Amino acid sequence: MTEDFRYMQLALALGRRGQGRTWPNPAVGAVIVKDGVIVGRGWTQAGGRPHAEPEALRRAGAAARGATLYVTLEPCSHFGKSPPCADAVIAAGIKRVVSAIEDPNPEVGGQGHARLRAAGIEVDVGLCKDEAARDHAGHFLRVGAKRPFVILKLALSADDRIAAAGHQPVAITGEVAKARVHLLRAQSDAILVGIGTVLADDPMLTVRLPGLEAQSPVRVVLDRALRLPGESHLVHSARQTPLWVMTSDLAEAPAAMKLGAAGAQVIRVPVTDGPPPGLDLKLVLSALAERGITRLMVEGGARVASSFLTAGLVDEVWLLRGPDAIGRDGIPALDTQPLSVITRSPRWRAHATEALGKDTLTVYERT
Q1: Could you say which of 53, 74, 102, 299 is catalytic?
Q2: Among candidates 160, 173, 177, which has minimal Cα distance to 326?
Q3: Maximum Cα–Cα distance for the chain, whole Å?
Q4: Active site residue 53
Q5: Cis peptide, bond prior to residue 169, ω within 30 of zero
Q6: Per residue in 67-113, pLDDT tens?
Q7: What is the pTM of this model?
Q8: Beta-ladder partners of 221
Q9: For residue 179, with 0-12 CB atoms within 10 Å meaning exposed, 13-18 middle and 19 or more buried, which class applies?
Q10: In which order are the strands placed within the sheet that holds 37-43?
Q11: What's the pLDDT band for 246 if we cut at 50, 70, 90?
Q12: Do residues 41 and 14 touch, judged by C-beta distance below 8 A?
């Protein structure tokens, strides 16, 4: 069991390499071991293909016969854009499969494991299932709840502010924390902000870590009235990095056509009377899931963060706290809500804490 655990931990680590790059497919990891030697490793490749199992089998070659496969999610059993992974495992002569968790996708749902067993392969399910469930939470939610896994990122001053008076941007965290945020962006399928953040900061919302620039996520803007300026960084870069603008089904067509001509995709969703009034966030998430998004990072601003929390649509909160205060005139982190709705609520628990230079990261997960 100790050896099984070690190899599954490696498979989980390999799978995480694909986070943010494999959507709409889950980021799976696989390890093939024979006589105590790793003969093949694989993870789901960019765009979702090849899957982890055939990638590991390709690297193992003939050594896969009689070996054990460790995989973080049940091998698929259906024909999609690729043949069933279960069939590839059988054809390779794998003797035993250790699978972390069953795939809730109704096209799989235990059928992959059943097909392997029917072929005479020993199948063990459940090792490191809690870790696998965390890693594949976006896939599970997209299949079951028709929405992506939502991570809310908040960068706060020592006095719980996110900007100076008048929404003026101010440096809150240092370079180490900023690099950590950019890594989270690279591991996300999409990043979402409100139009207020765009008008105040004119952000790029790309990944600016050396070697990871190509892993920038889809940029999503909530823009009910289509106020997104054509001269903004987001619009100017829409042909290089995807830009999706979520707007009301009543927004004017000429503005939508201009954004479309610049390379942005305009997606219309109904509005809600609130509280607070605005685009229906459940339908926003449903529209993103329909387009394949499994992991969504919500980055700003205060009203958007508060709205997602109020709607119960946040699964994880990344709270980065800097060492300096901004002052009473600064903008509160959650609009009209106190930060205690996260930090002192039984609905949330601190899952991990990490020092990032002079700053601190605390990750909260829903209970």
Answers
A1: 53
A2: 160
A3: 69
A4: yes
A5: no
A6: 999 999 999 987 766 789 999 999 999 999 999 999 999 888 899 99
A7: 0.94
A8: 193, 245
A9: middle
A10: 37-43, 29-34, 68-71, 96-99, 122-125
A11: very high
A12: yes
